[in-house]
Amino acid sequence: MPVRLNPYISFPDGNARAAMEFYHSIFGGDLRVNTFGEFGAPEPGLADKVMHAMLETPAGLTLMASDTPPGMEIVEGSNISVSLSGEDADELHAYWEKLSAGGTVSVPLEKQMWGDEFGSCRDQFGIYWMVNITAPQA
User: What pLDDT, in 10s, does the model give residues 85-136?
Assistant: First the structure.
C-alpha cells in the first residue's frame, strides 16, 4: 500500500460517530467504527465512545476520527482543516453544497485570483473545509 496523507479528527462530546456517519452520507464508501468498549475500556461513559473510525471512499479519500477521551484537552474545530481539491467540478461542487449546509461559509466557492474556484467553510460539526477546483488548462 502506498503512503497516504489523510486527516484525523478528534471530536469532543462524543460526536465522532455522528460526524463520521454524516461524512459517510456525503462521500460514500466503507465506514468502520470501533469503540473504547470493544478494546476493553471499562470506564462508565467511555465504552460507547469512538476509539477509532475510518472512512475509505470509492474516490480514494480517507478520513479518520475518534472521540476525545476524558482528560485530554481539545479546542473544537481549530485543530484541523481538511482540503478537497481536483478537477471534477461537479463532484466537488456537490461535496461543497453538502458540507456547507448547516455550517458557516467563510469564503464562498467562487473563482479566485489564481484562476481556480476556491471556498472554505466550517461544517455543522465545527470542522473547517477548503475546496479547490482546478481551473481547466487552456
Answer: 899 999 999 999 999 999 999 999 999 888 899 999 999 998 889 899 988 8
Please check whether the two domains, 8-67 and 81-133, share a CATH topology: yes
- Sheet harboring 104-111: ordered strands across? 81-86, 128-133, 117-122, 104-111
Cα angle 64, 68, 71; round to 5:
150
| The domain over range 81-133 is classified in CATH as 3.30.360.10 | no
Q: Are 13 and 69 in contact (CB under 8 A)?
A: no
8-67: in CATH 1.10.357.10: no
CA gap 30, 43 in Å, rounded: 29
User: In 3-state terms, what secondary structure has residue 14?
Assistant: coil
